[in-house]
Amino acid sequence: MRAEATQRVALVFSLLDANGNGVLESEDFTLMGDRVVAAAPRSGQAAKDAMRAAFERYWTTLLTELDANGDGVISFEEYTACVLSPERFDATVTGFAQALAALGDPDGDGLIERPDFMALMTAIGFERGNVDALFDAFDPAAGDRIPAPTWVEGIRDYYAPDKAGIPGDHLVAGVGTGTGPAA
User: Fold this and answer.
1) Tell me, what's the pLDDT at 183?
2) How many CB atoms are located within 10 Å of the residue 60 CB?
3) In terms of Cα–Cα distance, which of 174, 140, 150 is closest to 100?
4) pLDDT of residue 177
5) Rounded (10°) CA dihedral 152, 158, 164, 166
6) What backbone phi and psi angles, to 5 degrees, belong to 46?
7) Distance of alpha carbon 156 from alpha carbon 20, whole angstroms
8) What's 170's DSSP letter?
9) What distance in Å separates the CA atoms of residue 29 and residue 55, rounded to the nearest whole number?
10) Residue 89 belongs to what H/E stretch?
C-alpha cells in the first residue's frame, strides 16, 4: 500500500466525519449526502436520489464489512482496511463515483463543468485550491469541462492502494479542510 493512498483516504475519512466526533456513523453519511445534494440545485431528482443512495451504500458497505462488534461506528483503522481493499470496496466506490458524476452533469451531456465540479467537491469539504488543481489535472476541454467518465475513473483511482502521481493526489497537497469537518 502506498503512502499516498493512505493520505488520500485519511483526508476523506476526516471529511466524511461530518459531525466531527472522530468515527464514522450513519448520521455522517446522511449529513454528507444532504450537503452534496444541496450543492447541485440544477440536478434532477433522480440524480439527487441516486447520490443519497450512493452515500447510504457507502455506509452500508463499511458497516457490513467492518463492524464486527456491532457498535455502529467505524474507526479510521477499520475504514482503511475496507476502502483500500478493491475486492471489498470497488463496487461501492464505482457506484458512488457514477452517482457523483451524474449529479455534476445536470444537463446530461456527459460533461462536467467546472462550477458544478467545484460546488460538489467543496460541499464534500475539499479545499477550493486543491479542487481547482484537480480539475485542471483532468485536462479540461473547451468550455472548461471534463468528461464524466474521467471523473469516475479519477475517483476510482483515488481509492486504489497502489496508485501514486494521480490527479486525486492534488486533493491532499497542502492538506487542510478550510471549511471545517466536511462543511
Assistant:
1) 29
2) 14
3) 150
4) 37
5) 40
6) -60, -40
7) 25
8) G
9) 6
10) helix 86-103
Chain centroid to Cα 9, Å, comes to 10
Helix 76-83 with 86-103: angle, nearest 10 deg: 90
The cell for 99 is 452517482
- Say what the alpha-carbon torsion angle 158, 159, 163, 167 is, to the nearest 10 degrees: 0
Helices 86-103 and 45-66 meet at what angle, rounded to 10? 160
Half-sphere exposure of 145 (CA within 13 A, CB side): 16
Specify the amino acid at residue 109: D
Integer Cα distance of 171 and 131 in angstroms: 6
* pLDDT in the model for residue 1: 60
> In a structure prediction context, what are the per-residue pLDDT tens digits for the chain, which is 183 residues long?
677 878 888 898 999 998 899 999 999 999 999 999 999 999 999 999 999 999 999 899 888 888 767 889 988 888 877 676 767 788 889 999 999 999 999 999 999 999 999 999 999 999 999 999 999 999 999 899 999 999 999 999 988 888 889 999 999 976 443 333 332
* Helical packing angle, 76-83 and 45-66, nearest 10°: 110
Q: Please tell me the distance from the alpha carbon of residue 33 to that of residue 100, in angstroms, as a whole number.
A: 10
Check residue 140 and report its DSSP letter.
-
